[in-house]
Amino acid sequence: MRKLCHNPNMNKYIALDCETSGISTRDFKPALLTVYIAVLDENFNTVDELELKTKPDDGIYHVTPKSLDVNKINLVEHDKVAITYKEAGTKLFDFIKKNYNGERLIPVGHGIAFDCRFLQDTIISAGSWERFISYRTLDTGVIGRFLCVCGVIPENTGGLESLMLALEIPIVNVFHDAKTDTLYTVQVLKELIKRNKGF
């Protein structure tokens, strides 16, 4: 059995999830509150990770009460430990640069397009992101929808929790936490790959 190590040459994927203060609209720009990122090797095992609690540079949060009810983030306590978007952007850039092996990392997530776009709207420029991160993605939401169409899993399976239930993956922690959701998504992806390969 090969021993895993922090060798950038093994890095292939970057799994992530963001928790925000709401859903973006033309007139409402929510804040990025937390982001968890795991760099994965070719076997989808974590080789490095970064967790950030962030706040807008001007200190003004645009919030919907429903979002905080969902993610259970106490904004007062969060603000005490959160770092500014500018600081977070530097940490994120340094993190992905350190784990870059000359081939852009492929994002992994559930509804991953939203998370990638939100990071570029808040803490890292599109140019910096695209320098290290591929436009190709592995989205368990899209894969799950495809499997529903194929009749492989129940028709109403679309969310991360319902996918885990359909795949009989134990649910231990509460959803809508950036780290928990990211690690659950990787578990779902691994299980889908395992079943597709007939293991």
Structural summary, described in words:
The chain is α/β, with parallel strands linked by helices. It has one domain (8-196): Ribonuclease H-like superfamily/Ribonuclease H (Nucleotidyltransferase, domain 5), CATH 3.30.420.10. It has helices spanning 65-71, 75-81, 85-98, 112-122, 126-132, 140-150, 160-166, 178-196, and strands at residues 11-20, 32-41, 46-55, 83-84, 106-109, 138-139. It has a 6-stranded mixed β-sheet, with helices on both faces. Strand 2 (32-41) and strand 3 form a beta hairpin. The two termini are 18 Å apart.
Jot down its keywords:
single chain, 199 residues, alpha/beta, Nucleotidyltransferase, domain 5, 8 helices
